[in-house]
Amino acid sequence: MAALQPLADAVAAIRADPGRATVVTDFDGTLAPIVPAPPDARPLAGAVEALHTLAGRYGRVAVVSGRPARFLAQHLGIAACPRLAAYGLYGMEWTDGEVIVEHADAAPWRTAVDGAAEVAESVAPEGVWVERKGLSVTLHVRNAPERDEWARSWAEARASVSGLALHPGRMSYELRPPVAVDKGTVMTDLLAGAGAACFLGDDRGDLPAFDALDRHAAAAGAAVVRVAVRSDEAPAELLERADVVVDGPAGVLEFLRALL
Hints:
The chain has helices spanning 7-15, 47-55, 69-76, 110-123, 148-162, 183-190, 207-220, 236-241, 248-258, and strands at residues 22-25, 60-64, 84-88, 93-95, 100-102, 129-132, 137-140, 165-169, 172-176, 197-201, 224-230, 244-247. Helix 6 runs parallel beside helix 7.
């Protein structure tokens, strides 16, 4: 388990050389509270303003999420702040607020994803919500936890016949192209030539970003800060790996404002 740092010490390491520092955060459960219907999620009041200000002061500021890039662009005001980067679907697409760019290896799988979504919508039992994301499809069981076994079994079977990769999430199962892209690969790209860096996240999908910070610290000798967002659903491994633990999106906003 990492030795937790005081918030003041953690932000001081990032603020020491802001022009070379990198600040990256997840969206759901981090910038935005978890809600029953994912499309209803919105950043906590003040979070977007904090990110825009940070983007004007730090070398790189980005949001990396399982959300589609278009959703992130809309709700983070990317068009008004082009220095704030948005990576959707774990890095399979990204945007400057106007153009959505898809990973070249992921795009050919759109037909398979659409097919999986159509079948899921036709057979999903009541309470299981099928979310189409373009290059991926997610089965949500938050509102019907008793359907978890059905969703897992169906997603496993569909992955085996379609070639799509299954990624279990928090009360969800996602099918996406079998492309070697995740929050860790995005973070690695963002850290190229960078100095100090931090990443804020709340789920297992954020652990690859922590791994990227570890590699950056070892290779560049840079200060890194792994920030875990505590909740009733936060995985123990994430909390154990963290340098700083904050409570929910409100704690994330406090951390971001401390970087200003």
